Amino acid sequence: MTLIDQIKQNGSFLLACAVITAAVILAAKLSERFLPSRRVLSPARRVSIVGMCAAIATVLYMIDFPVPFLAPPFYKLDFSEVPVMFCGFFLGPSAGIVCMALKVLLKLLLKGTTTAFVGDLANFVVGCAFILPAVIIYHTNKSKKTAVVGMAVGTVVMAVFGTAFNALYLIPKFSELFHMPLEAIISMGAVIHGSIDSVYSLAALCVAPLNVVKGLMITILTLLLYKHVEKPLLLRS
């Protein structure tokens, strides 16, 4: 099935995706009203930085891998939020969210979707739950300490929100779009954790730990790399 066919088949789901995306971007814009002044850059330079970070993020997004000891194989880990975090730290919350949206859109154009857009929506929304708090806290008083605090808060928000979002919406929607019984999905989680017997325990015991691990790894990579790439990659771009 082509990407166009999937868009036609899942129109209502994609409409929900568009509404969620607009709400996230609006929240990012509103948050900037209460933050200190951002860097003054020309529109062309802002666009080039966002585009460059989104391009790098897209490549990293397509290099994903399962973590079989944590979650079923349809949950995969990637490091695409690292350049998105760079973009948000450098330009602010709305730029980070736009970068995240572009990353998902570019991946869909280049590679399509194997999850009927459910995985792509999850990556965007749950990723924003991590990026947005981290970037907002960092921009209140830019320092290594606020970066660490922001990403720690973002990791917690991502784990909590991701667990609830998967249990209440994403897993049932995945089941519906792929005509796969929920029991079959739950059984895949039960192979990893014998105590999993519902969508909620699947999300709590698989999704939450995976998001915590991802948040910790993105935090470490961001702390190690940001200052090294800020001047050559961002300030001189």
Cα distance spanning the termini = 39 Å
Query: Could you give the count of β-strands?
Result: 2
The order of strands across the largest sheet is 1-2
Percentage of residues in DSSP E strands: under 5%
Helix content: over 70%
Indicate the low-confidence ranges by residue numbers. Answer: none
Average pLDDT over all residues: 87
| Inertia-based shape | globular
Helix-strand sequence: HHHEEHHHHHH
Class from secondary-structure proportions:
mainly alpha
Count of helix runs:
9
In short:
Helix content is 77%, strand content 2%.
What features would you describe in this structure?
- The chain is mostly helical and 237 residues long.
- The protein contains nine helices and two strands, in the order H-H-H-E-E-H-H-H-H-H-H.
- The chain starts with a helix and ends with a helix.
- The mean pLDDT is 87.
Question: What distinguishing features does this structure have?
Answer:
2 strands, 9 helices, 237 residues, mainly alpha, two-stranded antiparallel sheet, globular
What topology does this entry show?
Elements: H1 3-9, H2 11-32, H3 43-62, E1 65-66, E2 76-77, H4 81-91, H5 93-111, H6 118-140, H7 144-177, H8 182-190, H9 199-235
Antiparallel strand pairs: 1-2
Helix pairs in contact: 2-5, 2-6, 3-4, 3-5, 4-5, 4-6, 4-9, 5-6, 6-7, 7-9
